[in-house]
Amino acid sequence: MKKPYSFIPFLPMKEYKKTGNEEGKIDIKLEVLTPVHISSGHLQEHNNLLYKQFVKFNNRPIIPGTSLKGCIRSIAEAISYSCYPKSKNVDYKKFSKNKLDESNNCIICNMFGAMGKKSKIRFEDLQLREEDIKNKMIILNIPQFYPPRPENNLYLENNKYKGYKFYHHGDKKILEKGKFPYEFVNIGGIFEGSIRFENMTEEQVNLLCFSLGLNGRIQPKIGYGKPAYYGSVKITTNEQKWIEKANKYENQSSEEVKGNIKKLINILNYDRSKRNISEWENGMY
After folding, report:
1. Is residue 283 assigned to a domain?
2. For the chain, which ranges sit under pLDDT 70?
3. Is the pTM value of this prediction over 0.70?
């Protein structure tokens, strides 16, 4: 049975004891490749139509820093020796022991923060460009989605979790339609903002830059509707040094990490992995 996602296998957790003093600011642009919705949690009415509103600040659509941080952290976890954080939705007996760590001492917890650990990275809210507020906002009717079901056999192999799940990109022609109206930023919309970091090692900065997709090797998915091919984005920067750091992470990682990077590129490179035939089936995750 085909599904609109694939898995990246778990790498073992390794304790990260290195300290660093790298700091900086990465100015980024986020371009919408397929329509993006991030919910404000509120309903809006227009011409007797009630729809889920895109999150805004001072009437300007934004991608909250927390949303982008969660997206990028998931990518970074899949291509590093990270631990698996506690969650109510998973059965820890279905992980290998070397993936779990109560002390949160892996490279990712060290960077992004964890219980008792402060994040070394600050993701600012990204703001939609002024000219796109009038031209790129659109109401689309999309399907109903169901929560992920990790207990499903599709997630398991030999009674162990297969790995991290990433949704496939899809051509705009196969975006799934439904009867539930949501406000989206349409294809071509541009968000702008910055990411700041401090006290990181060079390896961590390189990992951050690759996970953002700054060298063009991957394009993340963010927001609501990812199983139905919504939420594909491209993140770029004008500063060559951050692009070079992304390349460094890919080229200088261990063979084990490189294997996961290659698998991730096969899923998240928009041009390479773009599907022309939908693998969607009844909203199932």
Report:
1. no
2. 1, 86-89, 97, 100-101, 150-151, 282-285
3. yes
Question: Among residues 71, 7, 9, which one has the least CA distance to residue 256?
Answer: 9
The parent domain of residue 118 ranges over 5-273
CA proximity to 260, closest of 10, 3, 73: 10
Distance CA 257, CA 14 (A): 12
Structure token pair of residue 205: 């900065």
Give one DSSP letter per residue of 102-145, joined into a string.
TT--SHHHHHH-BTTB--SEEEPPEEE-HHHHHHSEEEEEE---
On the 0-12 / 13-18 / 19+ scale of CB atoms within 10 A, 133 is middle
Residues making up the chain, counted from first to last: 285
pLDDT at 88: 58
**Distance separating alpha carbons of residues 206 and 177, to the nearest angstrom:** 38
Give CA separation, 75 vs 49, 191, 223, in Å: 37, 20, 15
Residue 148 domain-assigned (yes or no): yes
CA atoms within 13 A on the CB side of 95: 20
Q: pLDDT tens digits, residue range 107-133?
A: 999 999 988 889 999 999 999 999 999
Q: Which two tokens stand for residue 102?
A: 């109560």
Burial of 88 (0-12, 13-18, 19+ CB in 10 A): exposed
Residue 192: CA atoms inside 13 Å, Cβ hemisphere, count?
7
How many helices, marked H, and strands, marked E, lie in the chain? 7, 15
- Cβ neighbour number for residue 102 with a 10 Å cutoff: 8
CA distance 97 to 237: 39
Domain contains 278: no
- Into how many domains does the chain fold? 1
Place of tokens 């507020």: 133
Longest dimension (CA), the chain: 58
Does 91 reside within a domain? yes
